[in-house]
């Protein structure tokens, strides 16, 4: 799809910035098992501000690039695991900014959205709950966290799990099921300042991925009092707002991880062309050359799927089915790309001498983020049945 010259120039600037300024940080000791440290995040974001590239998908007036334009920018930001964090295009902040821009009141946007767009704050989205509690995961309707009115406040109680970036976040969006008669069984969303003494981080989980600042936490919410004017949107509409956030957020994940897979393929290609075995470069062995060819096919098909879904969202359509199809197709294709890169590079592929092994780990987790492949397929199968019934009537 054609992009304006202005957008093409922005994409080139982002790519150059990531490759020259951010890639050298990939072996920085401040990159830990739970993501880059706050010190490192601040340092990289300082470089992004100096380059005029902080939050590049959002204009200075608060308006967004189109989804098609955003796709090109976020793919470029993903060429390093640290790129989205440095440029403020990473999850969960990118999705939270989108949601606040769509649903937040002017006062809420001034207080909570402005520092996020400026890259001066990080955020967390508190929806998923521990499986051991029978709480919400792929099925948000199982939510156990509750909220009730108490005068001019709401009181929230519950536990959350896999809350990305909760450690170190300044802004939280907390999702809870209402016990009030006018919104019973509906979900509510609340904006909160973090840290808050009523929100206790029980532990930061040890997970397969390591690119997101703060890692993923298990959190206890014990008597959290939130002023009524900090409810995001209307009471009982939280599940609807979650979809407002999730459809483009699924696609944004695809954009960023596409960039990461492109980078891994570049590294594997360079390795295959330089490394010799049995009298010739690896690339000249069909077993390796064909894997590189298959990578090109999967990367191009993923790019086309991303742009197609982005164009649907740009029409104003909900894009729920389209984002599910894209999430399934792209996450599975990029997993194949990353796996082939590891395989082609042998021992080097499983070492941390390059970022290939990290890309493999991160994309494996991506197949679960914002709904596992199987849940999206189940949702699409239900749509197939609904559409069939509609045709029969």
Describe the structure.
This protein has 393 residues and is of the alpha+beta class. It folds into 3 domains: 5-90, Acyl-CoA dehydrogenase/oxidase, N-terminal domain (Butyryl-Coa Dehydrogenase, subunit A, domain 1, Orthogonal Bundle); 123-236, Butyryl-CoA Dehydrogenase, subunit A, domain 2; 239-387, Butyryl-CoA Dehydrogenase, subunit A, domain 3. 50% of the residues lie in helices and 16% in strands. It is built from 12 helices and 11 strands. The chain has helices spanning 5-22, 38-50, 67-77, 83-87, 93-103, 106-117, 238-274, 286-314, 320-345, 347-350, 356-366, 373-392, and strands spanning 31-32, 35-36, 123-126, 146-150, 153-164, 171-178, 187-193, 199-204, 216-227, 276-277, 280-281. The strands form 3 sheets. Strands 3, 4, 5, 6, 7, 8 and 9 form a 7-stranded mixed β-sheet that branches. A two-stranded antiparallel ribbon has the order 1-2. Strand 10 and strand 11 (280-281) form a beta hairpin. Helix 5 (93-103) packs antiparallel against helix 7 (238-274), helix 7 (238-274) packs parallel to helix 9 (320-345) and helix 9 (320-345) packs antiparallel against helix 12. The longest helix has 37 residues, at 238-274. It is globular and about 80 Å long. The two termini are 37 Å apart. The mean pLDDT is 95. Its cofactor is FAD. Residues 236-383 form the Acyl-CoA dehydrogenase/oxidase C-terminal domain.
């Amino acid at each position: 799809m054609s992009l304006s010259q202005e957008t093409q120039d922005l994409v080139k600037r982002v790519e150059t910035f990531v490759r020259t300024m951010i890639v050298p940080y990939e072996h920085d000791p401040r990159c830990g098992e739970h993501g880059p440290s706050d010190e490192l995040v601040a340092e990289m974001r300082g470089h992004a501000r100096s380059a005029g590239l902080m939050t590049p998908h959002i204009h200075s007036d608060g308006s967004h690039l189109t989804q098609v334009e955003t796709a090109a920018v976020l793919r470029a930001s993903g060429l390093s695991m640290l790129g989205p964090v440095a440029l403020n295009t990473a999850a969960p902040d990118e999705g939270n900014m989108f949601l606040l821009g769509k649903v937040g009141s002017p006062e809420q946007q001034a207080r909570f959205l402005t520092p996020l767009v400026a890259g001066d704050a990080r955020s967390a989205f508190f929806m998923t709950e521990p499986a051991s509690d029978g709480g919400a995961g792929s099925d948000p309707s199982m939510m156990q966290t509750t909220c009730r009115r108490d005068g001019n406040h709401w009181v929230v109680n519950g536990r959350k799990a896999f809350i990305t970036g909760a450690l170190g976040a300044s802004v939280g969006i907390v999702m809870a099921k209402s016990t009030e008669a006018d919104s019973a069984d509906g979900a509510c969303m609340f904006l909160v300042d973090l840290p808050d003494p009523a929100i206790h981080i029980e532990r930061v989980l040890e997970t397969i991925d390591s690119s997101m600042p703060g890692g993923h936490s298990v959190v206890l919410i014990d008597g959290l009092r939130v002023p009524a004017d900090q409810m995001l949107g209307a009471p009982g509409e939280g599940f609807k707002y979650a979809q407002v956030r999730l459809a483009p957020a699924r696609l944004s994940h695809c954009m960023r991880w596409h960039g990461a897979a492109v980078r891994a393929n570049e590294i594997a290609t360079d390795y295959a062309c330089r490394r010799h075995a049995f009298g010739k470069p690896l690339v000249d062995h069909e077993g390796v050359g064909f894997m590189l060819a298959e990578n090109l096919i999967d990367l191009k098909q993923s790019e086309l799927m991303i742009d197609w879904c982005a164009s649907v969202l740009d029409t104003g359509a909900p894009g729920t089915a389209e984002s599910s199809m894209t999430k399934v197709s792209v996450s599975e294709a990029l997993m194949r790309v990353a796996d082939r890169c590891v395989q082609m590079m042998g021992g080097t592929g499983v070492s941390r001498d390059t970022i290939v092994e990290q890309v493999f780990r991160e994309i494996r987790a991506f197949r679960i983020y914002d709904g596992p492949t199987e849940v999206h397929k189940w949702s699409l199968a239900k749509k197939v049945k609904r559409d069939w019934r509609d045709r029969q009537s």
